[in-house]
Design a protein that fits this description.
With 124 residues, this protein is of the alpha/beta class. Helices cover 30% and strands 30% of the residues. The chain has three helices and seven strands. A seven-stranded mixed β-sheet has the order 1-5-4-3-2-6-7.
Length: 124
């Protein structure tokens, strides 16, 4: 189960005023249902936080989730639209910090662009 707390909606609206309610729905839906990358980019200070990315030619949908095993649900803690450059920065940080980049079957075409051994392909 995926949960979004009311205060997370309020925080996201404050920090990402460029997103309308419709934009937020599209970002959440795209990332949760059509993920291309799942990235743990800060394993030392936020090991339970993962970034789910839906790659799109216009703007990429990105959501942050908390997958703490103590909780009985996955909690969405933020979402936004980002450009390709930001996705590359997130991937580079994951490699640099010793995190993981999981590539879904849909996103496996980009596998050759990554050279680190922390990259895995997920089967859908």
């Amino acid at each position: 189960m995926v949960v979004i707390k009311k205060e997370v909606f309020e925080k996201n609206r404050k920090h990402h005023q460029e997103l309308s309610s419709d934009d937020s729905r599209k970002v959440l839906n795209a990332a949760l249902t059509e993920a291309d990358l799942i990235i743990n980019d800060k394993p030392s200070n936020k090991p339970n936080y993962w970034i789910i990315v839906n790659l799109n030619k216009d703007e990429n949908a990105v959501i942050n989730v908390d997958v703490d095993s103590v909780k009985s649900f996955i909690e969405v803690v933020g979402w936004r639209k980002v450009r390709d450059r930001s996705v590359e920065q997130i991937k580079n940080r994951a490699i640099r910090e010793g995190g993981q980049i999981l590539i879904t079957q849909k996103g496996a075409a980009g596998l050759s662009a990554l050279t680190d051994s922390s990259v895995f392909v997920l089967q859908r």
